[in-house]
Amino acid sequence: MSDDGRQGLTIIAFIGSVFSPYYAWSAEKDPFAHCAMNVVLYGDRGRFAMTERRATSLSRSADHIAVGPSAMHWDGTALTVRIDERGAPLPRRIRGTVRLEPRGFTGGPFHLDRAGRHRWWPMSPSSRVEVDFDAPDLRWSGSGYFDTNDGDEPLEAAFSRWTWCRADLPDGAAILYDVHHRDGGGQNLSLRFSADGSRREIRPPPGAALPATRFWRMPRETRSDGGRSRVLATYEDTPFYARSLLASTLGGEPVRAMHESLSLDRFRNPMVRLMLPFRIPRPLAP
Fold first, then answer.
1. Rounded CA gap, 247 and 253, in Å?
2. In Å, how far from its chain's centre is CA 63?
3. Could you give phi then psi for residue 232, rounded to 5 degrees?
4. Which helix (H) or strand (E) holds 194?
5. DSSP code at position 112
6. What's the predicted TM-score (pTM) here?
7. What is the pLDDT of residue 200?
8. Is residue 286 exposed (0-12), middle (13-18) or buried (19+ Cβ within 10 Å)?
9. CB 34, CB 10: distance < 8 Å
10. Are 92 and 84 in contact (CB under 8 A)?
11. Per-residue model confidence as pLDDT tens digits over 126-156
Protein backbone atom coordinates (compact mmCIF):
# COMPACT_ATOMS: atom_id res chain seq x y z
CA MET A 1 0.00 0.00 0.00
CA SER A 2 1.15 3.54 -0.70
CA ASP A 3 1.98 5.72 2.29
CA ASP A 4 -1.04 7.91 1.56
CA GLY A 5 -3.36 4.88 1.40
CA ARG A 6 -4.65 5.75 -2.08
CA GLN A 7 -2.80 3.13 -4.16
CA GLY A 8 -1.93 -0.53 -3.76
CA LEU A 9 -0.67 -3.53 -5.68
CA THR A 10 -0.32 -7.29 -5.55
CA ILE A 11 2.22 -9.28 -7.58
CA ILE A 12 2.34 -13.09 -7.54
CA ALA A 13 4.64 -15.30 -9.59
CA PHE A 14 2.95 -18.67 -10.13
CA ILE A 15 4.55 -21.97 -11.13
CA GLY A 16 1.55 -24.26 -11.20
CA SER A 17 -1.11 -21.56 -11.05
CA VAL A 18 -3.41 -22.73 -8.26
CA PHE A 19 -6.40 -20.76 -9.59
CA SER A 20 -5.95 -21.76 -13.22
CA PRO A 21 -8.95 -23.53 -14.80
CA TYR A 22 -6.59 -24.92 -17.47
CA TYR A 23 -4.43 -26.53 -14.77
CA ALA A 24 -7.53 -28.04 -13.14
CA TRP A 25 -8.76 -29.41 -16.49
CA SER A 26 -5.39 -30.77 -17.69
CA ALA A 27 -4.72 -34.50 -17.65
CA GLU A 28 -0.95 -34.21 -17.06
CA LYS A 29 -1.15 -31.79 -14.09
CA ASP A 30 2.29 -30.46 -15.00
CA PRO A 31 2.85 -27.28 -12.91
CA PHE A 32 5.51 -25.94 -15.30
CA ALA A 33 2.91 -25.88 -18.10
CA HIS A 34 0.79 -23.42 -16.10
CA CYS A 35 2.80 -20.35 -15.09
CA ALA A 36 1.72 -16.73 -14.67
CA MET A 37 2.78 -13.36 -13.36
CA ASN A 38 -0.33 -11.99 -11.69
CA VAL A 39 -0.28 -8.18 -11.37
CA VAL A 40 -3.09 -6.16 -9.82
CA LEU A 41 -3.09 -2.39 -9.30
CA TYR A 42 -5.61 -0.90 -6.86
CA GLY A 43 -6.73 2.71 -6.80
CA ASP A 44 -7.74 5.22 -9.45
CA ARG A 45 -5.53 3.51 -12.09
CA GLY A 46 -6.67 -0.05 -11.44
CA ARG A 47 -5.42 -2.89 -13.64
CA PHE A 48 -5.54 -6.72 -13.58
CA ALA A 49 -3.30 -9.12 -15.51
CA MET A 50 -2.86 -12.88 -15.17
CA THR A 51 -1.83 -14.33 -18.53
CA GLU A 52 -1.08 -18.03 -18.24
CA ARG A 53 2.03 -19.27 -20.06
CA ARG A 54 3.70 -22.56 -20.88
CA ALA A 55 6.99 -24.02 -19.64
CA THR A 56 8.88 -22.52 -22.60
CA SER A 57 8.09 -19.05 -21.20
CA LEU A 58 9.62 -19.82 -17.80
CA SER A 59 13.22 -19.34 -16.70
CA ARG A 60 14.54 -19.42 -13.16
CA SER A 61 17.63 -19.66 -11.00
CA ALA A 62 18.43 -19.20 -7.30
CA ASP A 63 17.99 -15.41 -7.58
CA HIS A 64 15.82 -14.95 -10.65
CA ILE A 65 12.46 -15.97 -12.11
CA ALA A 66 10.94 -14.83 -15.40
CA VAL A 67 7.49 -15.68 -16.75
CA GLY A 68 7.12 -14.39 -20.29
CA PRO A 69 8.13 -10.71 -20.48
CA SER A 70 7.99 -10.12 -16.70
CA ALA A 71 10.68 -11.06 -14.18
CA MET A 72 11.84 -10.89 -10.56
CA HIS A 73 15.49 -10.60 -9.52
CA TRP A 74 17.08 -10.68 -6.05
CA ASP A 75 20.43 -8.86 -5.75
CA GLY A 76 21.13 -9.65 -2.10
CA THR A 77 19.54 -6.43 -0.86
CA ALA A 78 16.33 -5.88 -2.79
CA LEU A 79 13.85 -7.70 -4.99
CA THR A 80 13.34 -5.91 -8.31
CA VAL A 81 10.23 -6.83 -10.30
CA ARG A 82 10.01 -5.73 -13.93
CA ILE A 83 6.47 -5.96 -15.26
CA ASP A 84 5.37 -5.98 -18.91
CA GLU A 85 1.87 -7.43 -19.14
CA ARG A 86 -1.46 -6.83 -20.83
CA GLY A 87 -4.60 -6.79 -18.73
CA ALA A 88 -7.78 -8.84 -18.97
CA PRO A 89 -10.62 -8.64 -19.69
CA LEU A 90 -9.69 -5.08 -20.69
CA PRO A 91 -6.43 -5.37 -22.70
CA ARG A 92 -4.71 -2.38 -21.07
CA ARG A 93 -0.91 -2.31 -20.80
CA ILE A 94 0.75 -2.79 -17.40
CA ARG A 95 4.44 -1.90 -17.56
CA GLY A 96 6.83 -0.72 -14.86
CA THR A 97 9.21 -1.60 -12.06
CA VAL A 98 8.68 -2.40 -8.40
CA ARG A 99 11.57 -2.51 -5.92
CA LEU A 100 11.02 -4.19 -2.55
CA GLU A 101 13.60 -3.82 0.23
CA PRO A 102 13.04 -6.19 3.18
CA ARG A 103 13.71 -4.78 6.64
CA GLY A 104 14.32 -8.29 7.99
CA PHE A 105 13.56 -11.97 7.46
CA THR A 106 11.55 -14.47 9.50
CA GLY A 107 12.81 -17.84 10.66
CA GLY A 108 11.03 -20.25 8.33
CA PRO A 109 7.77 -21.63 6.95
CA PHE A 110 4.55 -22.70 8.64
CA HIS A 111 2.49 -25.79 7.77
CA LEU A 112 -1.14 -24.92 7.03
CA ASP A 113 -2.52 -28.48 7.14
CA ARG A 114 -2.07 -31.48 9.43
CA ALA A 115 -0.26 -33.56 6.81
CA GLY A 116 2.30 -30.85 6.05
CA ARG A 117 1.43 -30.78 2.35
CA HIS A 118 0.89 -27.02 2.24
CA ARG A 119 3.55 -24.57 3.38
CA TRP A 120 3.52 -20.79 3.82
CA TRP A 121 6.51 -18.60 4.63
CA PRO A 122 5.94 -14.91 5.39
CA MET A 123 9.58 -14.17 4.62
CA SER A 124 9.53 -10.41 5.08
CA PRO A 125 6.37 -9.11 6.78
CA SER A 126 7.75 -5.56 6.89
CA SER A 127 9.32 -4.07 3.75
CA ARG A 128 9.61 -0.80 1.86
CA VAL A 129 8.37 -0.60 -1.71
CA GLU A 130 9.10 1.81 -4.55
CA VAL A 131 6.71 1.73 -7.53
CA ASP A 132 7.51 3.27 -10.92
CA PHE A 133 5.09 2.50 -13.80
CA ASP A 134 4.78 4.18 -17.17
CA ALA A 135 1.63 2.23 -18.11
CA PRO A 136 -0.34 3.46 -16.33
CA ASP A 137 1.58 6.57 -15.27
CA LEU A 138 2.04 5.78 -11.60
CA ARG A 139 4.74 6.41 -8.98
CA TRP A 140 4.56 5.95 -5.25
CA SER A 141 6.34 4.64 -2.14
CA GLY A 142 4.83 2.59 0.62
CA SER A 143 4.90 -0.45 2.86
CA GLY A 144 5.05 -3.98 1.53
CA TYR A 145 5.14 -7.64 2.38
CA PHE A 146 6.80 -10.64 0.76
CA ASP A 147 5.87 -14.30 1.18
CA THR A 148 6.07 -17.63 -0.61
CA ASN A 149 3.76 -20.65 -0.75
CA ASP A 150 4.14 -24.19 -2.04
CA GLY A 151 2.08 -27.35 -1.88
CA ASP A 152 1.82 -30.97 -2.95
CA GLU A 153 -1.86 -31.04 -3.90
CA PRO A 154 -4.59 -28.62 -5.04
CA LEU A 155 -5.62 -26.06 -2.42
CA GLU A 156 -9.24 -27.18 -2.61
CA ALA A 157 -8.22 -30.73 -1.61
CA ALA A 158 -7.05 -29.54 1.81
CA PHE A 159 -9.07 -26.41 2.58
CA SER A 160 -12.66 -25.22 2.34
CA ARG A 161 -11.88 -21.54 2.98
CA TRP A 162 -9.55 -19.10 4.68
CA THR A 163 -9.19 -15.48 5.68
CA TRP A 164 -5.88 -13.61 5.91
CA CYS A 165 -4.82 -10.08 6.71
CA ARG A 166 -1.64 -8.09 7.28
CA ALA A 167 -1.20 -4.72 8.97
CA ASP A 168 1.74 -2.45 9.63
CA LEU A 169 2.54 -1.76 13.28
CA PRO A 170 4.93 0.91 14.61
CA ASP A 171 7.59 -1.73 15.30
CA GLY A 172 6.85 -4.21 12.48
CA ALA A 173 3.73 -6.00 11.27
CA ALA A 174 0.92 -8.33 12.32
CA ILE A 175 -0.51 -11.18 10.23
CA LEU A 176 -3.74 -13.03 11.00
CA TYR A 177 -4.46 -16.27 9.14
CA ASP A 178 -7.52 -18.46 9.78
CA VAL A 179 -7.57 -21.68 7.74
CA HIS A 180 -10.56 -24.07 7.59
CA HIS A 181 -9.62 -27.64 6.72
CA ARG A 182 -11.60 -29.70 4.23
CA ASP A 183 -11.88 -32.62 6.70
CA GLY A 184 -13.07 -30.41 9.55
CA GLY A 185 -11.40 -28.17 12.10
CA GLY A 186 -8.86 -25.57 11.20
CA GLN A 187 -5.89 -23.53 12.28
CA ASN A 188 -5.37 -19.97 13.46
CA LEU A 189 -2.04 -18.20 13.05
CA SER A 190 -1.95 -14.87 14.89
CA LEU A 191 1.56 -13.57 14.30
CA ARG A 192 3.41 -10.41 15.23
CA PHE A 193 6.85 -9.69 13.82
CA SER A 194 9.36 -7.00 14.67
CA ALA A 195 10.86 -5.05 11.78
CA ASP A 196 13.93 -7.34 11.78
CA GLY A 197 11.71 -10.41 11.30
CA SER A 198 11.87 -11.75 14.85
CA ARG A 199 8.58 -13.19 16.06
CA ARG A 200 6.69 -12.00 19.11
CA GLU A 201 3.87 -13.86 20.83
CA ILE A 202 0.36 -12.54 20.32
CA ARG A 203 -2.95 -13.80 21.68
CA PRO A 204 -5.47 -14.37 18.85
CA PRO A 205 -7.81 -11.36 18.82
CA PRO A 206 -11.55 -12.09 18.94
CA GLY A 207 -13.47 -12.58 15.72
CA ALA A 208 -14.90 -9.52 13.99
CA ALA A 209 -17.81 -9.76 11.57
CA LEU A 210 -17.62 -7.98 8.22
CA PRO A 211 -20.32 -7.45 5.59
CA ALA A 212 -20.36 -9.71 2.54
CA THR A 213 -19.13 -8.14 -0.69
CA ARG A 214 -21.73 -6.16 -2.61
CA PHE A 215 -21.82 -8.01 -5.95
CA TRP A 216 -20.86 -11.65 -5.38
CA ARG A 217 -21.81 -11.71 -1.68
CA MET A 218 -18.49 -13.24 -0.70
CA PRO A 219 -18.47 -13.82 3.09
CA ARG A 220 -15.84 -11.85 5.01
CA GLU A 221 -14.63 -11.97 8.60
CA THR A 222 -11.46 -11.06 10.47
CA ARG A 223 -10.00 -10.63 13.97
CA SER A 224 -9.52 -7.37 15.81
CA ASP A 225 -9.16 -6.00 19.33
CA GLY A 226 -12.64 -5.73 20.77
CA GLY A 227 -14.08 -7.78 17.89
CA ARG A 228 -14.70 -4.69 15.77
CA SER A 229 -13.48 -3.90 12.26
CA ARG A 230 -14.84 -2.08 9.22
CA VAL A 231 -14.29 -2.20 5.48
CA LEU A 232 -12.66 0.92 4.02
CA ALA A 233 -12.51 -0.33 0.43
CA THR A 234 -13.23 -3.51 -1.54
CA TYR A 235 -10.56 -3.99 -4.19
CA GLU A 236 -11.62 -7.37 -5.60
CA ASP A 237 -15.12 -8.83 -5.54
CA THR A 238 -15.17 -12.16 -7.39
CA PRO A 239 -17.27 -15.33 -7.09
CA PHE A 240 -14.69 -17.02 -4.80
CA TYR A 241 -12.24 -14.33 -3.66
CA ALA A 242 -12.35 -10.87 -2.10
CA ARG A 243 -9.56 -8.43 -1.26
CA SER A 244 -10.35 -5.50 1.02
CA LEU A 245 -8.79 -2.71 3.04
CA LEU A 246 -9.90 -2.71 6.67
CA ALA A 247 -9.76 -0.34 9.59
CA SER A 248 -9.02 -2.39 12.71
CA THR A 249 -7.20 -2.33 16.02
CA LEU A 250 -4.39 -4.81 16.73
CA GLY A 251 -2.17 -4.85 19.80
CA GLY A 252 -3.85 -1.67 20.95
CA GLU A 253 -2.84 0.12 17.74
CA PRO A 254 -5.27 1.48 15.12
CA VAL A 255 -4.25 -0.07 11.79
CA ARG A 256 -5.17 -0.33 8.12
CA ALA A 257 -5.09 -4.00 7.18
CA MET A 258 -4.97 -5.60 3.75
CA HIS A 259 -7.43 -8.49 3.92
CA GLU A 260 -8.41 -11.44 1.76
CA SER A 261 -11.23 -13.98 1.89
CA LEU A 262 -11.02 -17.16 -0.16
CA SER A 263 -13.80 -19.73 -0.63
CA LEU A 264 -12.42 -22.92 -2.14
CA ASP A 265 -15.90 -24.47 -2.03
CA ARG A 266 -16.97 -21.76 -4.47
CA PHE A 267 -13.77 -22.03 -6.50
CA ARG A 268 -14.24 -25.72 -7.30
CA ASN A 269 -17.75 -25.11 -8.62
CA PRO A 270 -17.60 -25.98 -12.36
CA MET A 271 -19.56 -22.86 -13.31
CA VAL A 272 -17.04 -20.62 -11.53
CA ARG A 273 -14.14 -22.28 -13.35
CA LEU A 274 -15.86 -21.70 -16.67
CA MET A 275 -15.88 -17.98 -15.92
CA LEU A 276 -12.15 -17.71 -15.15
CA PRO A 277 -10.74 -17.66 -18.73
CA PHE A 278 -12.18 -14.14 -19.09
CA ARG A 279 -9.69 -12.99 -16.45
CA ILE A 280 -6.94 -15.57 -17.11
CA PRO A 281 -6.22 -15.81 -20.84
CA ARG A 282 -3.92 -18.53 -22.14
CA PRO A 283 -2.43 -17.68 -25.58
CA LEU A 284 -2.21 -20.47 -28.14
CA ALA A 285 1.44 -19.68 -28.83
CA PRO A 286 4.06 -19.75 -26.01
1. 11
2. 21
3. -90, -35
4. strand 186-194
5. -
6. 0.95
7. 86
8. exposed
9. no
10. no
11. 999 999 999 999 999 999 999 999 999 999 9
